[in-house]
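User: For my dataset I need records formatted as: sequence, then structure tokens, nothing else. Please produce one.
Assistant:
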Amino acid sequence: MKFFLLSDNVDSLVGMRLVGIDGVIVHERKEFLLALEDALEDPSIAVILVTTKLVNLAPNVISELKLTQSRQLIVEIPDRHGGANIGEEIDRYISEAIGVKL
């Protein structure tokens, strides 16, 4: 089982490759969803890392997959475009998932 990165920038991909994590760079929503589908179909991938900017391209799709995907874990990682508000994003995600405002 391995990690796989879906990134919108070269910096994150290079950093992950330094620790042995492969990935792809995508910029548009359509190519992101295709790359995500490919990663979900690969049985050797256990954890899919997705940069914040890409998550923001399809937040509903990612939220649904996080709640229903049983084989792979999808993890949002901050990148150079942000991440300062990651705590607020986590609160929002939990609130949406359980239906209770934190």
